[in-house]
Design a protein that fits this description.
By secondary structure, the protein is an all-alpha fold. Helix 2 runs parallel beside helix 5, helix 2 runs antiparallel to helix 6 and helix 6 crosses helix 10. The N and C termini lie far apart (47 Å). Bound molecules: fe (ii) ion (2 copies). One fe (ii) ion binds next to helix 3 and helix 8.
Length: 304
């Protein structure tokens, strides 16, 4: 029996986060790393909504029941991730950092540039759908990479990073590791062309680097506590934070490129499902949501 068949079907887990206690610089004294990771809250709400939008259109192309069930589970998980990151934005606004000028651009990118376009049913529409399915597989290579990284980034704990933010990142990261094969398996099932894989990887990678550095610069320039040039973002700082273990290293990121472009690539070779599931079983936000769901039942039983 393959490893995949032995796994339970994917399901979305409810979570509940309380942001009131999370400081603006949730990695104490390190606004640069805080904001580099904060870019996730700018990109993921629109990005993951877009995944869901595209995948709903590809469902009729799936001829394998197990894969269909996984894609439906994936859709549920990504919808929940998108919402959880979206809920951080009002908290940033309350702390004087309004992300709207940046998120408006990201929304335009996913809804208009990467949207359905006005294509008639037929070859062109199908080409554009397959292009987007391959793009999602490439992005999921990086969400799994980051998920695996954050589950193992002990330096964040040592620096006293806010436990609620760490839980959001690790709950999300663990589900990314858990479902890391779905997007690639779907791409192989409906198309799988190697040239398409390379082309969409290049586009996705270039866009991610571009959007990320712009996002960090946006946050650093608009952080109300950083004045007089202290809010600069630099490549040198990025490299240094990688060496300290609070961001991924450039070496690890560079090595992930040939892995994705190798013809032997499969996401099951990346990260540990066992580690991901162990985190999900103990995630404070998942346990809080579970307790909240069970609370009315307990109260009802107590009253009876
Ligand atoms: Fe996600
Ligand atoms: Fe994902």
């Amino acid at each position: 029996m393959s490893n995949k068949q032995a796994q339970a079907p994917l399901k979305a887990r409810k979570v509940s986060f309380a942001w009131e206690e999370t400081p603006l610089h949730w990695i104490p004294g390190d606004p640069f790393t805080t904001h580099t990771i904060n870019v996730l809250h700018l990109l993921l709400p629109a990005g993951e909504r877009w995944f869901v939008h595209v995948y709903k259109q590809v469902l009729p192309y799936i001829k394998d029941e197990r894969l269909r069930a996984d894609v439906i589970g994936f859709i549920g998980q990504e919808a929940m991730h998108s919402q959880a990151h979206d809920e951080v934005l009002p908290h940033l606004r309350e702390q004087g950092l309004d992300p709207t000028p940046y998120t408006a651009q990201v929304d335009w990118l996913f809804e208009k540039l990467l949207g359905d376009r006005t294509l008639p049913p037929g070859k062109a529409r199908e080409w554009w759908l397959m292009e987007r399915v391959a793009t999602i597989a490439a992005i999921e290579h990086y969400t799994a990479f980051l998920g695996n990284w954050v589950l193992n980034a002990d330096a964040l704990d040592r620096r006293g990073a806010d436990p609620t933010m760490l839980d959001l990142l690790r709950w999300h990261g663990a589900e990314e590791v858990e479902h890391r094969s779905v997007a690639f398996d779907l791409f192989l099932h409906v198309d799988g062309g190697y040239r398409r894989r390379v082309r969409t990887w290049a586009a996705a990678f270039g866009a991610l680097v571009f959007l990320w550095q712009r996002g960090v610069r946006f946050f650093m320039a608009n952080d109300p506590t950083l004045v007089g040039g202290s809010g600069k973002a630099s490549v040198r700082e990025f490299l240094a934070k990688g060496r300290e273990g609070v961001l991924p290293t450039t070496g690890a990121m560079a090595r992930s490129i040939p892995r994705y472009l190798s013809r032997a690539y499969h996401p099951s070779q990346e990260g540990s499902t066992r580690q991901a599931l162990a985190y999900l079983a103990a995630s404070p936000a998942a346990l809080a949501a579970e307790a909240r769901e069970q609370a009315p039942e307990v109260r009802a039983k107590g009253a009876a």
